[in-house]
User: Fold these one by one.
Assistant:
Number 1:
Amino acid sequence: GAGVSQSPRYKVAKRGQDVALRCDPISGHVSLFWYQQALGQGPEFLTYFQNEAQLDKSGLPSDRFFAERPEGSVSTLKIQRTQQEDSAVYLCASSSPGTTYTGELFFGEGSRLTVL
Amino acid sequence: DAKTTQPPSMDCAEGRAANLPCNHSTISGNEYVYWYRQIHSQGPQYIIHGLKNNETNEMASLIITEDRKSSTLILPHATLRDTAVYYCIVRMYSGGGADGLTFGKGTHLIIQP
């Protein structure tokens, strides 16, 4: 597709449920990032992939959060046993070194998770 | 990455130039200044970036002071669609694609009709 696609756009989960959020990056983009954005705050880094390798997961808030990108394209962020504090918008971004070297990250529209 | 300081909110009349300030007094020599904006219910969108020279593109201009401790993003003719949160980010960029972004709270720019 032309841009970064995320699904679902909206997810309501009961506390304790597991959720999975999907990100389809721009075709050919090597780098993929996940961010968490709480209401009224700027996005906060969660994790980073280069192709299928997860090179940085320092931002994952707990071991309930898990991300994967098994074939180096689509990525899934999984949250186990959701808690109310997990309610946020989860943003995915991709980038590629490319020839322009602008360092631009391309973001999807996000998945809004509400935990009841 | 160096920390940035931005006003929490600003108003601007439609059709006028919007000037958004950013302080980054601890910026180091190899750090770039990036600006992104986030329109309500959308993901952040890249606007412009620079190292030490002023930059202009189809969206905006970026003015960086000579000592690089502050910068201003200029939207020359603001429209209602420019209402958004604007983030000033200081970041090292190695060109390898691994460099993420550290967002602050940004400036909520409201364009008034």
Number 2:
Amino acid sequence: DQQVKQNSPSLSVQEGRISILNCDYTNSMFDYFLWYKKYPAEGPTFLISISSIKDKNEDGRFTVFLNKSAKHLSLHIVPSQPGDSAVYFCAASAGGGNKLTFGTGTQLKVEL
Amino acid sequence: DTEVTQTPKHLVMGMTNKKSLKCEQHMGHRAMYWYKQKAKKPPELMFVYSYEKLSINESVPSRFSPECPNSSLLNLHLHALQPEDSALYLCASSQELEDTQYFGPGTRLTVL
């Protein structure tokens, strides 16, 4: 039972354009969401998070949007840079809990 | 400084060997985690420690034995592993249980 889903296994974007990565969840108890970036043979790097009391959080080039009614969140990267090429995981937790449930990841490729 | 270090980077072991993975953080975090990640899959939680006490064991086989000797160190002792245990083992830490988790680079384990 995959409670956090990233339906696009890969995404290709041109440098300078916007990258939009999507994530859907099924567990209505999830109230804290995170995005991690992962390069091959490295651990995930925390990017940005959002609490369920908000619908948007922004940090530099990264913005996360949360639509609770649709159980959907998205990560926008603008402008996209070649160094952004990596696998992006969304993750969720419930009730201030410590158990992160990860999505399956989206491989982003930013082309010159 | 959000650095979590893990040693060794790579480990190859036979099914009869005993080995240990080590994780260290000096951020004063009181919660530490072990995850397992197979190729093209999301990280899966194995163990959670909070204030040096085991908080969560996600029904992990006893051939994996965690240990938290102090608040900065987390070990994972391995014994009689199977080839299917080959994976990237990730350590993470957070200030408290409900806070953002920061990951180490992982140990790539191969069981022959």
